[in-house]
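I have been asked to look over a protein record a colleague put together. Thanks in advance; the entry in question is below.
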Amino acid sequence: MKRKNFDKIVTAVGFGLSVFLFAAAALLNWGASFASDSVKSQLDNQNISFPAADAMPEATKAQLAKWAEKKVTTGEMARDYSDLYIWEHMKGSAIAAVGKPATYSEVSGMYMGLVRGGSSDTAQIAKLGDLRQTLFMGNTLRGMLLEAYAFGTMGVIAGYGAIAALVGGLVMLLLSIAGLVHIRRTPDSATI
């Protein structure tokens, strides 16, 4: 095979890869922007704000201090609000009611056991019923906020992918241009 023909094929493939990588960079950038804008607008609509630093849970006060009195607008903020604020309140409510940290399913099991068992301890049934509802709402809020965190993280990853695809596209474009220069310098008689 003539060297020039081989170089033309390789250069054409290089230009094709450049176009593909530039298209991938554009789509990844669009995805990153969409995810970021969606997470921000959805969280903005919820109007969730961190309390003042002195009202933060003691166990996570140091981690949450950076967000004091700020509105939740990013995936990272949603994760911290969920895991470091709501979760701590849920644990505190459970400790106050049953003496230990407990999940919704555990408390619901206790509650249903008393109700189905025909217990006459109405105060305990009411306390577990209230805690059950509190933990259910907390889990629901946490799930929604952690979903915003997941989508925000996917947007960040797509942004990094866009940068990598753009750099790869530029490198391939430069190599393809170098291939064109090489084709001009290769003698017609050269073979591989």
Notes: The radius of gyration is 29 Å. The chain has five helices and no strands.
